[in-house]
Amino acid sequence: MNAFRLSVLASSLISAAAMAQTPTLTNPAISAVLDGFYQNGDRVLGGREEGFGLGESELAISANIDDMFYGKVTTVIEVHDGDTELELEEAFIQTLALPAGFSVRAGRFLSDIGYLNNQHLHTDAFADRPAAYRAFLGGHYFDDGVRLSWVAPTDLYWTFGVEALKGEKLRAADEHGEREFDTVGVYNAFTKIGGDIGDNSSWQLGLALMDNRNGRLTPYEEGEEGHDHGDDAHGHSHSAAYTGEKTYVADVVYKWAPDGNYKYQHLTLSGEFFRVEDFKAAMLHEEDHGEEEHDHEHDTAKDHHQGWYVSGVYQFNPNWSAGLRYGELETEEAHGDHFHAQDLKETELSLNYHHSHFSTVRLQYTRQQGTNFDGLNDDNLITLQYVMTLGAHGAHQF
To answer: Domains in the chain, ordered, with CATH?
Structure first.
């Protein structure tokens, strides 16, 4: 079994057992990740801001609780508009010894929707998550709930899982605070399948369907200005800027390394597609207004949001890697009783220096082009970032 097969298996939801063999309650794994940057402009939809700043600096502790359970706590610290924000990102337990490939995780954890979401931000090859993540998942979606997963006893890696989550970060806007939300608002079902291609390559495909009971906009009432789902609506709290009742995600990943030796040289190609449906309240639908009173000037016929990206990252020696990513986002913003179409295109090029596995210095160029986003002009952004890890840190996902 080569290194890529081990990487694929490590991405299963029982991987916590392998990652926590040594750490125990009397000798836990403790780590910190430092993220600092300078950027010459603002990125839309909750991305990094202009000037010097701190990204998500992370403090984590994890250990086997006993032979049945594993636990982890992760806090993140950010500075936004001069205020220091402290947030609990993970606080979960996970089973280690359930039979027949089953596993249960409970508490607060990263949802296993899509490819990037179950990975921490400091593992990314770019300074920010793609626009689709920032728009539909608040950058990365973590929540309180429970997950049941199963790894199939097949030659290929194949896992299925379901999650029931609080869903507060994925609620539609409720400007007047009058709406009664479901306390368990989000249900997610996912599957991932992957395997090897010879000794040099590996692949993985993923599909997910998220049902968001609280994702549809509240009805429009006469005289209201509408619900702003732009960048200012949800600010910097990791909440989604655009929601809907149904979110579909498809992802694909391909990795190559000579003889499976990922350390010295490797290539990673990946892409994801998001589609968010059923976001309009009944009173915002065109058919609920008379022809003579409905404003068609800015309204659009689309009944969904969608976004996608493709990415390639090549590490050409142990110390240097380069990445290229392109993504597009198409959304609908409510204005009174109609919607305005928005679109965003991002082209990103990153150059990364890795003195070791624990340190990265990144220079990134971003070209962002969009329409109907507040405060967005066609910008060329330069980001200089460092990501440094202190202490013991578990293996990264596939």
So the answer is: 102-146+155-384 (2.40.160)
